[in-house]
What we know:
Helix content: 40-55%
Keywords: Cell membrane, Kinase, Membrane, Phosphoprotein, Transferase, Transmembrane, Transmembrane helix
Subcellular location: Cell membrane
Protein name: HAMP domain-containing protein
Number of helices: 16
Membrane topology: Multi-pass membrane protein
Strand order of the largest sheet: 2-1-5-4-3
Number of strands: 17
Transmembrane segments: 12-34, 289-310
Amino acid sequence: MKFLFFLRDSSIFKKVMVAFLTALLPLMMITWMINERGSDNIRKEISESILNTTRFYLDSLDKEADRIDRYLPNYVMDKDLMEIAITGHDITYYELTQKILEIQKRLDLMKNSSPFIQEARAYVPLIDRTILSLKYETSIDESEYAAMQQTDKLYAEPFTYWNDRLFISMQYPANTIRRPIYIVGVELSASKIRETLAQIGESRGGQSVLLNMDRGWEIESGTDSALMERMKEFAAEKRGSKSEEGYETLHYAGHRYLTVYKYSDVWNSYSITCIPEANVLGPLQMYRFWFLGACVLAVFIVFFFSYFLLRFIYRPLMKLVHSFRRVQQNRLDLIPIDRGHDEFGYLYQAFNDTVRSLKTLIEENYEQQIRNQRSELKRLQSQINPHFLYNCFFVLCRLIKSEHQKEKAYQFCMHIGQYFQFITRNDEDEIPLELEVEHSRTYVDMQSICYGDRIQVRFDGEVPDMVVPRLILQPIIENAYKYALGSMLPKGELWVHTERKGNDFSLYVEDNGNSISDEEIEQLKLRLKLSSNRIEETTGLINVHRRIQLRYGVDHGITLSRSILGGLKVRINLSIS
């Protein structure tokens, strides 16, 4: 008990060392009894040896099948076979007999050319005969003949599997949808293939199989059907993972089997051999028992070590991590200090001190930012109001003096009232975008009275329901009148439209003014880029740009480019979220 109280206030290093030594010492006591690396090396060498044997015998099968498939066209093009397949009984019986005997000799030669050929045959439907290498009086089995035709072979491998028999066949003429004139087929010897497979693992008490999952046929060398089903499942797993060769341990009926597999492109099949590990590894079983005992002990050690780390290191560390995540979410909560005088106790105290300092700094910085935003907006309003007020009075006086402009004077007075009512509403720093656009329309209506039909204005696009800083659109339109459209001799054109992409919303103001050059546009871009580093005494683009960035961040604001109308294109980039 005293040791636990001492450990509670000890350093993390001491706690980790105690836990590590507690786990390490029992393992060190049993490592001299086992040599796992040596066991693995022996196992690997035996597995590689069996895999090499599999490669050798499967390669022999591949070569035999490929050789038969390559030489089969030579027998298909036999002149005697072509003649009797075309003329049939039109020739004399003697001539027909002689040609069949000659064909039988060549079929017998083909049969004896490979130990894997059980029988060679030619199917001739015109004479209703299947010519074998030895038998003479035979007839055609229609179902067998239909299975040999290439129209039924819709797969890549050269084999045809029919009635538990394996064939390689070729028809004449080839690649036709019509009934062939004749077919030459080779029936492979399943017993010889089974004998070849048995040489891989039968000496060690194993079972081998050549398995084609696409066509559903297999040739096995063993008798354990249940193990055979487990081997099929294993082949399906390897096919799904596209693994072509290797070796693994297969568990079946409470026993472990060393399983070696190899895929053949020629046969489109897996060769799989399962050998009981007890027959292969023999003396290594003793080391496995020692290893299992060590594993059982290691499990208890791991649980003990995990509990130790969980209680003294992981849980306190995760408490600190969760507290940092809350800070990232602007939740500045203190950590309850339930530790002694170890490192975590110090970290908790330092974290709480940091959080208190952050709260103080955030409150001061937030208040200062709000004050800056309000002063920026009021400075913009104070710059705009006198400038525009003088012009409004001059225009109003001109309209009143004219006998035919009384109605326009009345409309102009209404627009002035709406305009300055919006401007002098000082208690609202942010307003709905719909009101901002409406205020800009009021300003355009006032300018339309001043300029008449000389300047055409269009408002296009939808206005979403969102809140924006005041006076971000009207100053841009005012700049267009002042610097681009007001002094133009041709007709002016002003286009105000919107665009929405996800959470980004943009207002565009384009004109057809011809007074601004590409160099001046680049200079304006540079001034916008540097606007955050200096104070600009202007009521136009830069003030709007700075206020939008204060509200939405540096990724938003104003960008400039050449308009398709020919003048300046101003994009006001906002965020709906």
